[in-house]
Specification:
Layout: H1 39-49, E1 58-60, E2 68-73, E3 77-82, H2 89-101, E4 112-116, E5 126-130, E6 135-136, H3 145-161, H4 191-199, H5 207-219, E7 228-230, E8 239-242, E9 245-249, E10 256-258, H6 265-270, H7 276-282, H8 287-301, H9 305-309, H10 313-333
Antiparallel strand pairs: 1-2, 2-3, 3-5, 4-5, 6-8, 7-10, 8-9
Helix pairs in contact: 3-7, 4-5, 5-8, 5-10, 8-10
């Protein structure tokens, strides 16, 4: 079943994450090596590699991710397992970089406690993290959206200031987050991907306006500064709120060093419209980066046709509202 793993030292005063990327923002079709993961499998992995924790309950988190499966281990830990080979590199990236980034950041982030090894029944490395309390930071759960805007902006600003020496570039295992908008690699904003997703909504939304948003993002001047640290997907599924206040950012699987426009997914998915001005005041963003950020946000906000037609009027209205806000911002700023 594999050798016994060795826990990593945890930072003092830190906690651990739950949840995972709940939108397939960087993934394409489900790969053929998608691995079946179950509570029983996680229990066996823990028992064989970390027997000191074998008596703790293992419970799947309520909202599972696309890239990774996440389970709560006891009350103070979580187990995070890649679902398929594309995301295996996320394990080493989080294990190495999160302890180095955490001291520089104003919100809590996951702290790796141990790294598991592949076995005969589970072929990938996996992680044990310290648990982080909170709920998904959906806009309607924020007690003060303007304060949340400032907190998110301060977090991203602090992340950008960290020395990038040796940091991971945009690559296959982080979904090519941080690439230029015209990069042909398989990122969420690759032209072939965005064109097909927009075309699928023909007759349901203003696809011409959405195409214009996309074209403006591609036409905007490229990032001319040095590459900076980016989270890759600071959307509500990866930001935790406690009592209505932002408390933690989780799921650093798409962590990279690149164009910061990618992290503008955050204000478009997490904040109401009237709070985005606060975000921009705290984290100054030039117009070109804001335009590219709208392109990344479009990749995160484009619904499936079913979202708009499956009979859930609240969900459909929310999806349309977000797209309308993107279009209005584009028309107001160009």
């Amino acid at each position: 079943m594999g050798s016994v793993g060795v826990p990593l030292a945890a930072s003092a005063g830190s906690r651990s994450p739950h949840g995972s990327r709940s939108l397939a923002l960087s993934a394409g079709d489900t790969p053929p090596d998608d691995v079946a993961i179950s509570t029983a499998l996680v229990r066996r992995l823990i028992a064989s590699q970390f027997p000191q924790w074998s008596g703790l309950p293992v419970t799947p988190v309520a909202t599972q991710g696309v890239d990774n499966a996440t389970y709560r281990l006891g009350h103070a830990m979580s187990v995070r397992l890649p679902r398929h080979s594309r995301w295996v590199g996320q394990v080493a990236r989080e294990q190495h970089w999160l302890p180095l980034l955490a001291p520089h950041l104003p919100l809590s982030v996951p702290v790796p406690l141990a790294e598991g090894t592949p076995t005969g029944e589970y072929p990938f490395p996996w992680s044990v993290h310290r648990w982080l309390d909170g709920e998904r930071a959906l806009p309607e759960r924020l007690a003060d959206p303007r304060q949340a805007a400032a907190d998110l902006a301060q977090f991203l600003a602090a992340l950008r200031r960290v020395d990038t020496a040796g940091g991971p570039p945009p690559e296959w295992s982080n979904g090519f987050r941080g690439v230029a908008m015209d990069d042909a690699r398989d990122s969420a904003v690759a032209a072939r991907r965005l064109r097909s997703r927009i075309a699928a909504l023909e007759g349901l939304v203003d696809t011409g306006a959405l195409t214009a948003v996309w074209q403006a993002a591609v036409s905007a001047p490229a990032w001319e500064g040095p590459p900076v640290w980016i989270h890759g997907d600071p959307s509500p599924g990866n930001v935790l709120a406690v009592d209505g206040q932002l408390g933690a950012v989780i799921d650093f699987g798409t962590l990279a060093v690149g164009d910061p426009a990618c992290d503008l997914i955050g204000p478009w998915t997490l904040l109401p419209a009237d709070a985005r001005a606060v975000f921009r005041a705290v984290l100054p963003v030039d117009e070109a980066t804001w335009a590219r950020g709208r392109g990344w946000a479009l990749s995160a906000l484009l619904p499936s046709p079913g979202t708009l037609t499956d009979g859930d009027p609240v969900r459909a209205a929310r999806a349309r509202q977000r797209l309308d806000e993107l279009i209005a911002d584009f028309r107001g700023h160009g």
